[in-house]
Amino acid sequence: MPSTINNQQWIYRQHPAGIVGPEHYELREEALSTNLSAGEVLLQSRYLSVDPYMRINQSLKPTYNELPHALNTVQSAGVVAQVLASSVEHLKAGDWVEGMLGWQTHARVHHSGLRKLDPELAPVSTALGVLGMPGRTAWFGLTESGRPHAGEVVVVSGASGAVGSLVAQFAKRHGCKVLGVAGGKEKCDWLRDTLHLDWAIDYKTHQSADTLSQEIKALTGGVDVYFDNVGGMVTDAIIPLINRRARIVICGSISQYSGGLDTVELGPRFLHHMLYQRATIQGMLARDYVHRMDEMLRIVGPMVKRNEIVFEETVVQGFAHLPATLNRLFTGNHVGKLLVEV
User: Fold this and answer.
1) Which of 47, 85, 109, 224 is an S-S bond match for 152, by CB 3.0 to 4.6 Å?
2) pLDDT digits (tens, 9 = 90+) for 147-203
3) Residue 335 CB contacts under 8 Å (≥ 6 apart), including other chains
4) How far is 50 from 21, CA to CA, in rounded Å?
5) Residues 6 or more apart in contact with residue 191 via CB below 8 angstroms
6) Is pTM, for the whole model, over 0.85?
């Protein structure tokens, strides 16, 4: 192996005021030494993750991180990579791993920050989806915060996305009736025909929260668990429909991320509904359950291996397309987990 290899990196250069795109990044190349220190592993990236939290971390105001993503640094991201060389016994050349390596084609890191993958269990790309952070978010967000019971009505916004599509399926496995809210007929058809949800609604056919709320009410009669990935008008429509002791899980508010993080829109004035129904509302983050990752894999892994869970992936080819692919999260031009393959 040569003493250095060429490493390409996407550097976050400029804070976006609205939609994030290629103009906020710079492609940089550097020579990366292949000489390993004790405990280090040399990696080549294969699948790079694109996630909504990346836009949250670019906010200039406090979020769940104390500081925004630093400018002039590699864009942070989960990556599935293959080992090129290793200084540790349990990782060999050719092994597959997952870690927070960022948007770069190669990395030299300590092995403690890596999770070794079993390619026999499922395609390795699932380590960034159903068997990774989105799967952890969906499983624990629903079961721990949503606490679903058989026969209850669960409504999921952003239901065709990486997290929402899994929440909807997990809720069905709990014996719930599930309504998925998504944007576009094609996505709603997919929710009904492929995920076999009880109902699906295209929010784009509604001009107001009132008409959307009326359709949800007509279909479900009321909502016991609302898993919110979107916020905005969809949440405005659903909160008035909650049943007694309803549980509302705030996982994301992607409708607010492009321009609404630094100049926040007013939220729905729904607290009186929370009072009337003695409901609970809880925010959840995947990082709260990192220590229970093995537990999730023991439960969800066999479901995936038995083909009991649909894990749709939208895979974009080419490292050069990463910033533009991040923008696709906000245009709705994807289904399931969004990835870039190198």
Assistant:
1) 224
2) 999 999 999 999 999 999 999 999 999 999 999 999 999 999 999 999 999 999 999
3) 160, 161, 165, 187, 190, 312, 314
4) 12
5) 159, 160, 165, 168, 180, 182, 197, 200
6) yes
